[in-house]
Amino acid sequence: MASVASAEHIDSAPALRRLYVIRFVFAVAWALLLLLFGSDLTAGARLLLFLYPAFDVVAAVVDARSARAAGPVKGLYANMAVSALAAVGIAVAGASGVPDVLRVWGAWAVVSGLVQLLVGVARRPMGGQWAMVVSGGISVLAGASFIRSASQDDPSLTALAGYATLGGIFFLVSALRLSRSSRRG
Q1: First and final CA of the chain: distance in angstroms?
Q2: What's the whole-model pTM score?
Q3: Would you say 3 and 61 are in contact if contact means Cβ atoms under 8 Å apart?
Q4: Residue range 54-112, pLDDT digits in tens
Q5: What is the Cα–Cα distance from 106 to 31, expressed in whole angstroms?
Q6: Rounded distance, CA 81 to CA 96, Å?
Q7: Who's near 65: CB < 8 A, 6+ residues apart?
């Protein structure tokens, strides 16, 4: 049974690797755009803020479709729901100001980080998942930091760019590790 599960993980590794690279590119591009245009909560900045969790929903759907044969996808479904709620919450919070955006983003980072950590642990046999586990843990801590920073004088969205970039780097590391793991398998 273990060898069948390993073969299924190896079969889904190329699709997951491509998805991780796409997530890296998106995260870095998004972070750059946020740094360039996100100092004020303009309509464009609010759209940009909405797009990040909305993209996360799409990525989780793609991930779930390619991962069905490799095992349970409940965590991915949970991530879809949490990210969809976050996208709506951020769209609503964007009308209220930066502190509310940071609170919603922070709550999303905490919950989605926990989900990412659990999915990474479940995918351990596939290889290349330690970065997802670490990234999930960091997301929980960053989310708490965003919530705390919302109550400071003159809170800023720039930390979100760093969060996205670091998350993107972890996706790239996982993609590279998956490449190495699938060549060994």
Answers
A1: 16
A2: 0.86
A3: no
A4: 999 999 999 888 876 555 678 889 999 999 999 999 999 999 999 999 999 999 999 99
A5: 16
A6: 23
A7: none
